[in-house]
Amino acid sequence: MRTITTSKGVSIELDGDIQSVLEALFKTCWSDPDDYSYEHTVREVGHLLGQLTDAESRQYLSEALTLCYTTYENGRLERVMKKLGAGEP
To answer: Which residues 6+ apart lie within 8 Å of 26 measured at CB?
Structure first.
């Protein structure tokens, strides 16, 4: 299994699961809350992408889009449920 690192040296084992990448990104971006910004996050994502092969990039993009879509869909469903007056399941 291949490993990449964040700009702060945090190792990320590329196991095909985006969760480990997100956790390392979160730890790196929040390691210095005074330096945290959208721009910092974009730079860090670019740093990670620069270490991925084309195939790895496609795999992680696919997983990221699926995760984002599911989150978006759940948010929409939650708003519909609130409009209908339904509580938590």
So the answer is: none
Q: Note whether 3 and 13 are within 8 A (CB).
A: yes
pLDDT score at 28: 87
Is residue 70 assigned to a domain?
Answer: yes
Residue type, 64: A
Domain-located, residue 58 = yes
Rg (CA), the chain: 16
Describe the crossing of helices 18-29 and 54-84 by its angle, rounded to 10 degrees: 80
**pLDDT tens digits for range 19-69:** 999 999 998 888 888 878 999 999 999 999 999 999 999 999 999 999 999
Query: Structurally, how many domains does the chain consist of?
Result: 1
In-domain check, residue 89: no
